[in-house]
Amino acid sequence: MAEPMSRDQRVVLTVAVLASFVSFLDGTVVNVALPAISRDLGGGLSTQQWVVDAYLVTLGAFILVAGSMSDVLGRTLVLRIGLIGFGVTSVAIAAAPTAEFLIVARALQGVAGALLVPSSLALITSTFRGAGQARAIGIWTGATTVAMLAGPVIGGVFVDALSWRLVFLVNVLPIAVTLWLLARRSQPDHRRPGARVDLLGAVLCAVGLGGVVFALIEQPNLGWGSPVIWAPAAVGVLAFAGFLMRQRVARQPMMPLDLFRSRNFWAGNLTTMFVYAALSLYGFVLSVYLQQGAGLPATLAGLASLPATLISIALSSRAGALSGRFGPRLFMTLGPALMAVGALLLLLVRPEFDYWTQVFPAVLIFGLGVTTTVSPLTAAVLGAIDPERSGIASAVNNAVSRIAGLLSIAAVSAVAGGALNLDGFHRAAIFTAVLMLLGAATSFLGIRNHLSRRD
User: Fold this and answer.
1) Contact predicate 63/399, CB 8 Å
2) Is the pLDDT at 449 greater than 70, yes or no?
3) pTM: predicted TM-score of the whole model, two decimal places
4) Pick the CATH number of 261-455 from 3.10.129.10, 3.90.1150.10, 1.20.1250.20, 2.40.50.140
């Protein structure tokens, strides 16, 4: 039985929960607000993609740096910088006069967001031990799930009843409370002697992701033959290759490549890439199409995926327990296959729209697939690495999932044929199913049950 928490432990856990809640909430409210943003500021589908991907580019590039920054500057200071940056950029986004201003502010918000989740988890792992740590991480995980549940609904209500701009101000109050709690911490901040931040690696990663994403989003407008498209794509590919080379020679790499010597780690991250690319694509196209194609108000569009989230909350711990008993391979194969079926059921959507017969079955099956997959996938990836390296392993897996989502949303125009009409929606559903089946195949062929951490 875990010992009662001390005052400082309660403060740390509350800070970690609130800081992560802010980041996860922002990630889920945005999709529901996209059509309203596009109507107000213009730009169509490409603007909607950039509103999401500008945040994910910088988040994915700098989330690996956050761990190093915490070691150099201290976890509390890095968390405070992230919270202040997130709050300032949230206000800037809410006041954005143009789509271009909003997109730049979202990119800056991604930098701030990258400092929140790794730093909050680092605070938990450095403050709690043993059963208390497992309990604290469980509470943290539950809070992030609540953010995923509440985000689309809160976003929809704000868009319909008030304004999309207020969606981005939801974060301001929890940020203020978290900063106040950080000021009450009685324990000194921890810094690791000799730690360094790989700024060159971060820049190469950001340029690499940014160049490829720009090409994918703008290609339907200009074509691959335009130098405005192929030149950034080429620079992006070269920069990302440079990032990987940098990780081989850096004294303190952001992404230690030796982690990938473990079979379950590389196979789990490859599965993560396919599954989270599909999850991001699914969430984006469903939220946008239900409003722009099916004509639902933002609130109902936010509620549409609620059954899947409720299934995940109710059954995820059970899925994790069964995975621990029987091994992750079966669940990591079956789960993405179920999500592929759920995605294909979206092909039932017709111009004469009916949620209960055309979308609800897909959401249920998709929710069962998510529940079957996520806990075993996380356990397989982290269980493949020695416990003392679990922090960097978690950061790498988190970055892989964010980058996968970033690239899949960047490719929406190409997948949907330039417009998210009914045909484009169906093409996106098929592409989602293909990604999920690739994830299932990767798990079946790559994951092994009960491997030692040397394998």
Assistant:
1) yes
2) yes
3) 0.82
4) 1.20.1250.20
